[in-house]
Design a protein that fits this description.
Helix content is 45%, strand content 9%. It is an alpha+beta fold and 244 residues long. The chain folds into two domains: 2-96, no CATH class; 102-239, no CATH class. It is globular and about 60 Å long. The relative contact order is 0.16.
Length: 244
């Protein structure tokens, strides 16, 4: 099975998150392809990966398009990348149609994606001596969360539709037991981030509440626009444990 997948979409063994992040700083869009990328895009939703490979094959002309006379990978990297990015866009489009909080869910995840992308562009990670770009795909609260009823309702919907994946075993840098929230993996290409698991966006409880209730204001306050500007309410950047 693994050899068939390699023949179909190839093996992208040259993945280097730090180098990809540096290229993104130069306004380069990463190309997502290969079985390693496919594995890292999975947040436990195997049916998504199956559907994604189906879409890749369709973009390449269907079964006839990936016939034996085409060299490996049978699905060109450009078609794989297009299918991956389109899947993320379609997910967000469908998310908008959810009753009650659909629009808000899209605003929340978009605010996070834009803030995380700005950190990659303008802030260096302190977790490595080489100080590569900060690459955050999760939120890590400083303290246990006590949310208002409205914020809790939005939070529950984010988890229900797997916009973020919750890790209840998390521990903040202050030693508190907190839920970590990981961005659903296949949304990462949409926001031009890397698949690195190293860094996080760290928030005080009041900041997290604002994130849920007024994501546009949150983004306006915390999105970096130059290397000199940092978050007004304190440091938002942090390394931490990898995804469980």
């Amino acid at each position: 099975m693994a050899s068939c997948l390699t023949l179909l979409i190839g093996s992208n063994t040259g993945l280097n998150h730090n180098e990809e992040a540096r290229q993104i700083r130069e306004d380069h869009k990463s190309e997502f392809w290969g079985k390693e990328t496919l594995s890292r895009l999975c947040s436990g939703d195997i049916h998504y990966l199956i559907g994604l490979v189906r879409d890749m094959v369709a973009l390449s002309g269907g079964v006839s398009g990936i016939s034996a006379n085409r060299p490996a990978p049978r699905v060109p990297p450009a078609d794989q990348n297009k299918a991956i990015r389109e899947a993320a866009g379609n997910f967000l489009k469908n998310l908008r149609s959810i009753p009650r909080h659909g629009e808000r869910l899209v605003e929340v995840v978009t605010a996070f994606g834009n803030v995380a992308h700005s950190f990659l562009k303008f802030h260096d990670s302190t977790n490595e001596s080489a100080r590569p770009p900060h690459q955050a795909t999760r939120i890590e609260p400083y303290e246990p969360l006590t949310l208002s009823d409205e914020a809790q309702s939005i939070y529950d919907e984010l988890l229900r539709y797997s916009v973020f994946i919750e890790d209840v075993r998390g521990k903040s840098r202050r030693g508190k037991v907190v839920p970590r929230l990981y961005l659903r993996r296949f949304l990462i290409p949409h926001f031009n981030l890397t698949l690195s698991l190293r860094d996080s966006v760290q928030l005080e409880p009041r900041e997290f509440e604002q994130f849920l209730l007024n994501p546009r204001l949150f983004e306006d306050r915390f999105r970096l626009r130059s290397p000199e500007r940092s978050g007004p309410l304190g440091p938002l950047f942090g390394p931490g444990p990898e995804e469980p």
